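As a warm-up, study this chain.
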Amino acid sequence: MIALINGKLYTMEQGVIEQGAVLMDHGKIAAVGADVEIPADAQIIDVAGRIVTPGFIDAHTHMGIDEEINQPIGDDCNEMTEPNTAELRAMDAINYRDLAFQDAVQAGITTVMVTPGSANVFGGLITVMKTAGKTYKDMLINGEAGLKMAFGENPKRVYGEKDKTPSTRMATMAIARQGFYEAKEYISKNDDDKEFSLQSEHIAKALTGGIPVRAHAHRADDIMTAIRLRDEFDLELVIEHCTDGHLIVDELKEAGVPVTVGPSLSNRAKVEMEHVTFRTPGILANAGIDVALITDHPCTPIQYLPLCAGIAVREGMKEYDAFKALTITPAKILKIDDRVGSLKAGKDADIVVWDHHPLEIMGRPNMVFVNGQQVV
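Now compare it with the structure written out below.
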């Protein structure tokens, strides 16, 4: 049993506690508050007024499947052979010894979403995992956390260069519709009357409400296309990247979709990122839209996630909204807020003690706990 005492606790569900304690026991948070009773046998760590937060969450990365230094051997991000590869699962390619996981832990990031890339209209199933653990089994939270889809430049560029479809946005949407209609037909058949299809099995999970569609969409028209597809097939949708989100705030608010914003710490790498700005997350959060900040690692290295939040604050995002965009909001988007995202009794003991303010350039973790185990 470990007790962190005298911390400034950013609980994310009960506000900020100026002089508080967090009690950890058997990998879980046992108690949080200003008047926590500390058992006599607890290991007491006085954090002396330092900021204490839940472990940060990056809700969109390619960690372990797109390794920075092992190219091309370490690149398993995109199966660029067919535009519909819904049968794939990111978890089958993740190298959990990728150095990015170490970088993440040392930056206070304890949970990540790992997704296939955006070369294909249907990319496959998404994984959510911790960033520390002895084995992949220890780190895994959910290997079927969403169905990756992509709109916009990437599919049309990849397959247009191969003289294959899709080479236009029209064809991308046609392939998307075809996949969902085939999955609907697949669902309607009795088991005895249908030939097994792993593609349709995975797409069916999105149709039946089991998992959300995570839609890569930068440009305003592509975002609206993804929303139109959601309405057509009654899907649960998360907009990934949402670079033009600040241009269509009212439409996103009306649609009621959560968004992940990033990579913002990058150049205008392609046409659909023409309007990239760190003002976007603050504008969307101020409108009441659920916003998570992301790195899209390795597009922006994972360790710069807190820095991205700090720049977003500089560009108008409220500080507490930025903290939410690194903790409880991505936890809700990933459907793991029963386990992570806040300092609350019963949740996983993923906790970071910071030596300076975490959103400032000098901020770095003094201590990091994952499932109650100190890893930094």
